[in-house]
## 1
Amino acid sequence: MLWKMRSEGPLKVMALNCGSSSVKYKLFDLERDEVLARGVAERIGLPGSRIIHASGREKESVFTTPLAGHQEALACVFRLLTDGTPAPVELSEIKAVGHRVVHGGQNFQKPVVVDERVLSLLEENSRLAPLHNPYNIMGIKACRALLPGALQVAVFDTAFHRTIPDYAFMYAIPSEYYERFGLRKYGFHGISYQYVSRRAAELLGGKKEDSRMIICHLGNGASLCALKGGVSVDTTMGFTPLAGTVMSTRCGDVDPGVVLFLAERENLSPASVLEILNKKSGVLGISGLSGDFRDLEEAAGKGHARAGLALKMFVYSLTKHLGAFVAVLGGLDALVFTAGIGENSPAIRAAVCANLKFAGVVLDEEKNRIRGKEAEISAGSSAVRVLVIPTDEEKMIAEEAGALAKKYAHLLKREREKTG
Ligand code: ADP
């Protein structure tokens, strides 16, 4: 038995998002719908590491402390939880930890309880997402060691896109590469799409089988998802989170010939080319200034030509992909903006919506001023309802992990009853 769990008491579940040098966490009491603690451990393995932590509704405090690795960072986080004021957390009360895992590959199409078999499949999948999955796995291993009584659950960013049909997910390259390596479109941001699409259906008055929706997840990583009847039918990211629209520091779609040309002419290794396309491209690469839209909007306002060009390219790239998805869906009923830029930039939303006038989108300028809050921002005359919905990936991860914890608690109870 991997874990032991008490079936009574509040359902406390932790959501974890482990990156290369950071660990973001949020602890929920799902039954009370409360956040008990939240924070981020930053600069893990680097000088100047620290944890920014808040308990309950308290303000955040910064703890500067050396954090050599993910396990050490999580051990510190758990210490902060148990020492927490005003309400210290008993670690044995945490029934499950939900881990964001970026790439589920072809093996995982829904959240799973992590056991040895799952862990080795996840390790295999690391080949598909070398920049993300290894750190997600480190988080899982650290939590197994530090919280042996909690159920470890992997929740995948790719799983929401399991409904994309083969003619949309296959690449037109020899099919042996799909068979041998699983080379296909997977899509990402699925946890965000799951949360936002559920919330959109609630706000729009229920899921309709033929509803046509596009969600724009515009954060540092940006992608679009086309949904029919609430399920994903296509998305802009692909085999990796590098494809699709122009992003903060990622290039989005480029001619594959560009990649080969760069490698040859600059004598670069595949890893160096990937570094350029992932970290030095996008609006950062174009502007030469910043990947942050606040900086770019300010600079463009002061006449910085390349910041202006970067913003134009971002909006153009979104427009082109949106147009394609309107065609894929055969029209559009709802358009939803989420994540950092989608939730906070009226200027980007207005520019994108102006370009979708042909599809019946009319924005209410006054309502579009909203930042960081749920709102309907379309005009009464709009044929398409336009919404802003702040995403909550941690809540979705915790709910998925909590659902499995409940399911397993029930099985455990039955098992106990059977054995007397
Ligand atoms: P991540 O993909 O890292 O989770 P987020 O969803 O947090 O990213 O989005 C972060 C980005 O959101 C920032 O880099 C910035 O470009 C953008 N952003 C945040 N606030 C604003 C704002 N007020 N105006 C314009 N852009 C914003």
## 2
Amino acid sequence: MEILKTHDLCKTYGSSDAKVEALKNINLTVQQGEFVAIVGASGSGKSSLLHLLGGVDRPTSGQVVIDGTDLYSLSETDLAIFRRRKIGFIFQAYNLIPVLSAEENIKLPMLLDNRQADESYADELMNVLGLKERKHHLPNQLSGGQQQRTAIGRALINKPSIILADEPTGNLDSKNSKEIVDLLTFSVRKYNQTLIMITHDSNVAKRADRIVNIKDGVLYEQQAGGQHDA
Ligand code: ADP
Ligand code: MG
């Protein structure tokens, strides 16, 4: 089943002399349950694409359809709600709230949605993420890997159908990188989620079902890596 589809997605920043055509007619289709890696040189348009897929920016033209909903036809309010319920974001910079504990950071999206945190799922996540003994710690009391695992917990707490990750292992050593990818692939297989991840790391990319390459704002499909853990 198709979960995400873009139609001639374009993004241009600035105007006249300062104009940058960051994305040119991107047509990408992703199936539910798929793990897609996005690779490409710095400045090729990867983050621009991920932001548009997640409804955090507006395209210059074209569409993003997720689960039958045309994202950019929604009002800002409806888009924010859609994003919070359907999409989990993970960034290279962990973007944790410094005054909240690991546990509070993880539960934040549910609170923002005026929902009771699902305590048993939150506990399960913290166990799987190896944060059980660290849940009352503040972000600055956690290692980089633990901070990223907290950010992953926060992205997963609402059981989003799509997880968008922008170089989530970019600041981590190879051991922590592998653990993070293990956790993400475990979660997406278990909950039949879709994972779209930007990465510079070929060891990470080759674990995806499919690799797409971006070059100067143009998308190229690549041979599948297809190393499943399941
Ligand atoms: P990547 O993530 O692959 O490094 P980006 O999507 O961040 O690439 O950037 C693609 C191009 O768009 C680059 O040339 C970048 O300088 C430009 N760009 C990105 N964001 C902005 C912005 N907010 N304003 C102007 N130009 C931008
Ligand atoms: Mg980027």
